[in-house]
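Module 6 notes. Inverse folding takes a fixed backbone as the condition and produces residue identities as the prediction. Think of it as a translation problem where the source language is geometry and the target language is the twenty amino acids. Below is one complete input and output pair. Work through it position by position during the lab.
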């Protein structure tokens, strides 16, 4: 992509233009030198470019952005990726602006065409289902962000220290959120989902926020099923004990480590890392310990 290169003096008039810019604007170099943007572009474009140029001159810093311009001569709209940087004399004073612009108009047209083909019916030019889903997704994302901001503000308020008798207390909380939509179920079901999200928030990050998702429900269902199965396992001898010898520095067996294993009739061996915490949280750890001792 050939670049358009130009220099403007402090009056924001062109003092240098390369041939690429001349060709693009449909003017000769003599016609462009001494011109300002008001003579080349429409009023809106000229005003916007002037504001950027003044900022570069005043701040003395490089500026980069995409620019949309409308040519005064033809009315054609073009897109440029432009870098503007101040030029300094030996004393450090800014005496001009150098601009380097790449014409990305064709790229933007291709992107627009791809967008039209993706989101609009080619026959009727009406929005299609994909556009509807895209807009709904954006709206949902914005709604989620709004809800999360409110939740974060609430947690911040709860975290403010308060006085209690002669001391100061700090309260922290974890929050579970569930988004409402038509047909989502009863209030009780929604509260259960919010509880699951809150538990997930506590498990991952104290003082955190979690939105409910179906995986949480699936995990809760699995834990409930395993808890029931573990109760039965204690009663029906599905648990097994393994003795693992412990050796000293001389290689002699000095003790035995007792390992508890659970062989589920359908799922096979269940990892202790899964069923031991389950037993602790469900109150089954004592019956489990008694079984081991017996």
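Target side of the pair, the amino acids:
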């Amino acid at each position: 992509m050939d670049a358009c290169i130009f220099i403007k003096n402090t009056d924001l008039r062109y003092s240098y233009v390369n041939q690429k810019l001349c060709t693009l604007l449909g003017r000769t170099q003599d016609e462009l030198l001494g011109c300002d943007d008001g003579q080349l572009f429409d009023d809106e474009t000229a005003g916007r470019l002037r504001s950027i140029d003044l900022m570069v001159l005043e701040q003395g810093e490089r500026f980069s952005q995409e620019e949309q311009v409308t040519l005064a001569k033809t009315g054609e709209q073009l897109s440029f990726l432009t870098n503007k940087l101040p030029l300094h004399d030996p004393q450090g004073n800014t005496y001009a602006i150098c601009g380097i612009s790449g014409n990305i108009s064709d790229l933007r047209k291709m992107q627009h065409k791809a967008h039209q083909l993706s989101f609009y019916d080619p026959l009727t030019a009406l929005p299609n289902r994909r556009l509807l889903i895209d807009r709904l997704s954006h709206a949902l994302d914005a709604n989620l962000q709004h809800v999360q901001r409110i939740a974060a503000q609430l947690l911040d308020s709860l975290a403010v220290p308060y006085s209690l008798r002669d001391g100061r207390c700090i309260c922290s909380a974890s929050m579970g959120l569930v988004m409402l939509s038509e047909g989502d179920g009863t209030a009780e079901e929604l509260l259960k989902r919010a509880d699951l999200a809150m538990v997930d928030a506590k498990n991952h990050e104290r003082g955190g926020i979690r939105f409910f998702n179906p995986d949480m429900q699936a995990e809760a269902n699995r834990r409930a099923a395993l808890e029931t199965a573990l109760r039965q396992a204690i009663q029906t001898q599905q648990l097994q004990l393994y003795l693992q010898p412990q050796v000293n520095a001389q290689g002699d067996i000095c003790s035995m480590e007792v390992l508890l294993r659970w062989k589920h009739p359908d799922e096979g061996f269940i990892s202790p890392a899964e069923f031991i915490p389950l037993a602790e949280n469900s109150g089954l750890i004592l019956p489990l310990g008694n079984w081991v001792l017996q």
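Reference fact for the lab report: The domain at 3-108 is CATH 3.30.450.20 (Beta-Lactamase).
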